[in-house]
């Protein structure tokens, strides 16, 4: 991974860990939707490989991707796809499952594996294989209580993003239970949705994230003052 992309990824995961999942997007749509997302403040863009001509879409946006934005592929199931992503300077490698072979291939090619998991066994296996972040999926069906129960055994410092059924209305609940960020699918983009509408939704999601982050920072500052 190029140093500029590495810095952009680290910054995004720390400050704005919101992933736009563009499942079903076509190369004809990608430019307009990508521009709308970037203008709204999204820094992490995923093109699932089961989308029509997904590699064409990834190639198109990777060529003109701003320095502070990171793109890549989702629904990655084949370790061989890691090399192709590295060639395209598209370092996000996102999976729906925890496959050590895919993770190790991603690490070997300097990518950032964001690995789907549902159970503690899957999460710990992904961490051991070198995952950059974990993707709790399907989050809404599992619920915040489930995440609270397993959070204690997850590796400290490894970001966990909630994906699946996440929308503006439930971000606060998940954030309060300690998730590091979110992935947004059909609530943000679905095939045929105009780029302007995607941009409007994206702006609302970014604004909600900023609000939650500011509330958390204020609470931390209050605790520090109370302990002083």
UniProtKB/TrEMBL annotation:
Pfam families given for it? Aldolase (PF01081)
User: Which PROSITE patterns is this protein grouped with?
Assistant: ALDOLASE_KDPG_KHG_2
Is Lyase one of the keywords? yes
Q: Which UniProt keywords apply?
A: Carbohydrate metabolism, Lyase
Q: Which GO terms describe its molecular function?
A: 2-dehydro-3-deoxy-6-phosphogalactonate aldolase activity
Looking up InterPro entries in the UniProt record yields: Aldlse_KDPG_KHG (IPR000887), Aldolase_TIM (IPR013785), KDPG/KHG_AS_2 (IPR031338)
Q: What class of enzyme is it?
A: lyase
Q: Its Enzyme Commission number?
A: 4.1.2.21
UniProt KW Lyase keyword: yes
Lineage, top-rank taxon, reads Bacteria
Q: In which pathway does it act?
A: Carbohydrate acid metabolism
Subunit-level organization: Homotrimer.
Q: Which family does it belong to?
A: Belongs to the KHG/KDPG aldolase family.
User: Which protein are we looking at?
Assistant: 2-dehydro-3-deoxy-6-phosphogalactonate aldolase
Source taxonomy: Bacteria, Pseudomonadati, Pseudomonadota, Gammaproteobacteria, Oceanospirillales
């Amino acid at each position: 991974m190029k140093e500029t992309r590495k810095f952009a990824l680290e910054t995004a995961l720390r400050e704005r860990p919101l992933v736009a999942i563009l499942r079903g997007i076509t190369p004809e749509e990608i430019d307009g939707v990508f521009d709308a997302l970037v203008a709204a403040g999204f820094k992490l863009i995923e093109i699932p490989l089961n989308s029509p001509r997904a590699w064409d879409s990834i190639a198109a946006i990777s060529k003109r991707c701003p320095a502070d934005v990171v793109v890549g592929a989702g629904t990655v199931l084949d370790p061989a796809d890691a090399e192709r992503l590295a060639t395209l300077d598209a370092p996000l490698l996102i999976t729906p499952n925890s496959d050590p072979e895919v993770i190790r291939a991603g690490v070997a090619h300097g990518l950032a594996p964001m690995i789907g998991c549902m159970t503690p066994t899957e999460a710990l296996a992904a961490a051991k294989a070198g995952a950059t972040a974990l993707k709790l999926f399907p989050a809404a069906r599992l619920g915040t209580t489930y995440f609270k129960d397993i959070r204690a055994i997850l590796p400290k410092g490894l970001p966990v993003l909630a994906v699946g059924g996440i929308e503006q209305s439930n971000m606060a609940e998940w954030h309060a239970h300690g998730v590091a960020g979110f992935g947004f699918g059909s609530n943000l983009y679905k095939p045929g949705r105009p780029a302007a509408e995607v941009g409007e939704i994206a702006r609302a999601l970014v604004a909600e994230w900023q609000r939650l982050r500011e509330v958390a920072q204020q609470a931390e500052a209050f605790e520090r003052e109370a302990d002083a």
